[in-house]
């Protein structure tokens, strides 16, 4: 019983945790994120799911995309069970077309994912 109490105290004690060496996976090297030179050159996207149903089709999720240059957000209503094709069409029709028209950049749109956005 006493050993369990000591283990629990050490596991939850802030001072003990600060003194311990990290035993987890080592972090990678920090790299600088590229700075955009014009609007809609770099976008960040993330889903917000588990929302109460709303709208004409009872949407229950939202795809949020933010322009890194101007910090302009676009909120796109969607469903949690949308497929990759549904999401790609949503991004193409509502984000890429808008960003290409605004920026005047008609080159091929480059997608890059860091899996942390």
From TrEMBL:
Gene Ontology MF terms: nucleic acid binding
InterPro entries the UniProt entry points to: RNaseH-like_sf, RNaseH_sf
SUPFAM superfamilies: Ribonuclease H-like (SSF53098)
Protein name, UniProt field: Integrase zinc-binding domain-containing protein
